[in-house]
Amino acid sequence: MLLIAAITIILAFAFTFTNGFQDSATVAATFIASGSATPQQGITLVACMNFVGALLGGSAVAFTLSGLIVMQSGELLLQVLLAAILAAAAWNIGSWYFGFPASSTHAIIGGLIGAGIMAAGTGSISWGITELLAPPYEITGLVRVMLFLVLSILLGVVGGYLMRKCTRVAFRNAKRTINRSIIRINWLATAGMAFFNGSNNAQKQLGIIALVLLAAGESVAIEVPFWTRAACALLLALGTVSGGWRVMKTIGSKIFSIKPVHAMDSQISSGITLALSTLAGAPVSTTHIITMSVIGVGAAENSRDVRWQVGKELLISMVVTIPSTIILSGILVVLIQLF
To answer: Computed from CA positions of residues 207, 211, 214, 217, in that sequence, does the dihedral angle turn out positive or negative?
Structure first.
C-alpha cells in the first residue's frame, strides 16, 4: 500500500510540473504577446509569483477537491487516486503537445469521478445534488465545483468585455505615451494573477496528496504538510519556466492581435476572477478564464477581428475534457486492479 501511495504522490508532483507549462503558461500569454515584457521577463515573473502563490495561498481549494471523494481510507482509495492522477497527467501532456489549451482542473475532476465510479460505484462521489434539493439547500460537492467552473468562465468573458468597454472610454483622448503607464500596470496585474494562479493550481495536487496520506495511514485527518506545499510550489515554478510555448501562442496571438491595453483588460478581469475563486475555495481553470477573457476583450474591441474558430475549439475542449478523463481513469483503475 505504501508503494502505491509513493507512486501516486510522485505522479501528483509530476502533474504539478505539467500544470506549470499548461495552465500557468497562459498567465504570461497576453503579457508577452502585447510587448509588455520579453518572453524571458514574462516567464520569470510568472514563475516566481506562481511559487509564492503556491507557498502562501492557503488550502481552501485543496479541501474542496479532496471532499469530492467519499470513500473509506485504504488501498482502494489509493488505486482511485492513482488512476485519476494518471488520466489527468496523460490529458495534460497530450493537450500540451497539440497546443490545445485544455484545463488541468477539468482533467483532474474527470479523473476522480471516473476512477471513483468504476472502483466503488456512484456512491463514492460527493455529487451535492441531495444537499442542493433538500434543506438546508447547501451548494456542495460536485455541484459546487461545476457551478464555480461555469461562473468563472462567464466572469472571464463578461469581465474582459466590460473592461475593454470601460478603458476605451477612459483612454479615448489619451496620448500614445499612456502605453508606458499601461505596461507598468500590466506588470502588477500579471504578478497578482500569477500569485492566485499558483495558489489555485497547486492546491489541486495538494488535495490529492492529502487524500493519499490519509488513505495510506500516514495522517489521521486531511491536512496539507508544509513539505508537500513547498515541493508543489517549486515544481509549478519549474514547469512554468520549462514549457508552455505552444499553448501561449494560441492564446497570445491566434485569437486576435493583442496590444498592451488589451493585455491589461484581460489580466485585471482574469486576476479578479481567479482571486475570488481561490478565496472561495473553488478549483477553477486558469486556461479557460484567461482565454475567455481575451475573447471578451477582442469582442469589445472589434468582433470582426476575433478568430472565432479558436474560440469554438476552446469550447469543444471545455466540453470533452471531463467525459474523456472519466473514461480514461475508469479504464486505468481497472488495469491498476488487475496488476
So the answer is: negative
